[in-house]
Fold this protein.
Amino acid sequence: MEYRRVKDQESDEVSQKDIESLGRSSFSNTAATSSLSIAGGLKGKYSWKLKSIVTLALTLLTSSQAILIVWSKRAGKYEYSVTTANFSVEALKCLLSLVALYRTWNVQGITEDNRLTTSFDEVSVYPIPAMLYMVKNLLQYYIFAYVDAPAYQILKNLNIISTGVLYRIILKKKLSEIQWAAFILLCAGCTTAQLNPSSDHVLQTPIQGWMMAIVMALLSGFAGVYTEAIIKKRPSRNINVQNFWLYIFGMLFNFIAICVQDFDAVINKGFFHGYSFITVLMILNHALSGIAVSMVMKYADNIVKVYSTSVAMLLTATVSVFLFNFHLSLAFFLGSTVVSVSVYLHSVGKPQQQK
């Protein structure tokens, strides 16, 4: 009997210890879960805040791009050399890439993936997209002889079609039925936005404007697909190194354009002749737009570009009403709505990868 009593006491002590141990373990797990929840909440809040800032920046930069180009004109023409403006944009982007690369070297050190090399295999792939972007960027100044800022924002979405078709041809990527339907909607939206019921001409934009918009879309699409193919060929390569060489060749081709088109004017009047505060803002806008797109790819997602593009069309039209006496017609509103829907459908209609 005495032995059984002692055993019962020992069992009670062991059970009590187990309960205390279980309680401590439960409290520890609860505390750990709570800490993870708080950390996750803070991270999610930071991510949402960063995504919001990037979205706002990209929207403002995209919507103000066409406005600043039109605003930089004086008496319907550019007093500055557009080739020097293009060169300045490429030089500023090159400088910003170098600054970002220098910060990477300070944090990570110089590695095989972020080292600047001058090998033929490294640099020989960049002249083609750099030349295409140079021609496309020059055309965007001359297209405003035929279109206004809101129409430009609408027609600029044609590069979605050229990019999609070139994706299919060059990178062998399949397009879903929804994406093909989005292309048709996009064409219909661009045409609707350009309807001009108060004139003998059916469309507000003349054939020259449409042709330039189509050429710009093809150049932008091919350059974008070609650049993506370069990046994906070596995905571990630091993006700032790749951007640096792209911008170096951009500067080279724009320097050739200066010599061919504006050499006498630059020699006699100076490189920055005709520049105004608006011109400087325009150059900053073009340079920062490239950085904003890179940040969207890194910190946000493709849907952010969709929303930014859609909102930018409406913002450009609204601001143009006050700055350039733009008439916001029902056709333009309906066309821009159809374009926004088509851009959204193209984004969400990507074919699902088979597992």
